[in-house]
Amino acid sequence: MQFILIVLVFFLMALVQGWIVARFGLRGFSYQRGFSRAAAFEGDRVEFVEVIRNRSIFFLPWVRVETRIPVSFGFSTREEVEIRGGHFHKSVFTLMPFSQVTRRHQVVLKRRGHYVLKQASVTVGDLLGLRLTARDVEAPAEIYVYPRLLPEDQAAFPSSRAQGEVSVRRWIQPDPFLVNGIRGYRSGDPERDIHWAATARMGQLQVKTHDFTSDPRLLVLVNGQKTESQWAGLMDYEQERIERALSLAASMCVYALRRGVEAGFGANMPLDEETECACLLPDRGAAWEDTLLRAFAALRIQLLRSFPTFLEQLPRVSGMDIVLLSCYDSEDIRRQMAQLERLGNSVTLMLIPEVAA
Predict the structure, then answer these.
(1) Within a domain: 5
(2) Which domain holds residue 122?
(3) Which candidate, 14, 46, 20, places its Cα nearest to that of 33?
């Protein structure tokens, strides 16, 4: 009889603690997560930090946090972390009253992209697993993964004008501060260039002539089509050539910017959830480098227009060194290249080779 009473009391206590955990267990619970850096390059290792708090007076014997993760995240897992199918990250905790647990996981970023983690699923259970309570919580975490930069000798754009080794007229603009002589006035000369002292001396209008200063601008355009006839999207395993083109484009832009050259980037593909093709016209500066790299990270390999149509619809630009990165050549591309050259640009087509098996 005494044994039955003990069992009955134990069973009632189990029901009560199960009810308490299910009813109040998540009231003081909070979960936060984030990456140790807001941005990193493909192949880098970062920390993924989870902070779990229990602000209630109740002991939580069993808490499971599960969230979907990109398959390209390589976790250095420990015993309490499980990665199921390469897509789900699961952590299990025990939380004392008014306690906090912080876990740090090493993550290798295997693929370029803009990754945003939103919700996580939290499940709380009692000691005996009789009652389970689950809910979704907002736990935002975001990171930009930039393309891997190539060595400089593999990412040289098709001239060394930015280094001053080649003189190209269209890259040169008159500098108003560099006066190198005087000549007679010609129709169309701006009034600000009139040299009034020389005009009075010579008896006819004279204007200042200026020396020239280089102002190089690089615009790299990436073709998201693997073939001229392709229109449907590419499977993940088919995107490697496009990813190589993006890595080359990012490298060219970064190294140009670090030499003081204006650089920009465009593609017949969108950024994040945008519905228009990416196009960032050349600019310069450290902040612009970050802007460009984030654009490279956020670019989705989703074809919006054929490459010739994208080139045709570009803003009218001139005086630029335009590099086209494409998996193929075609008459339509060549026709658009000729049109860009007629506007005063230098245009080079670089073909991206097949990926070696």
Answers:
(1) no
(2) 27-146
(3) 46
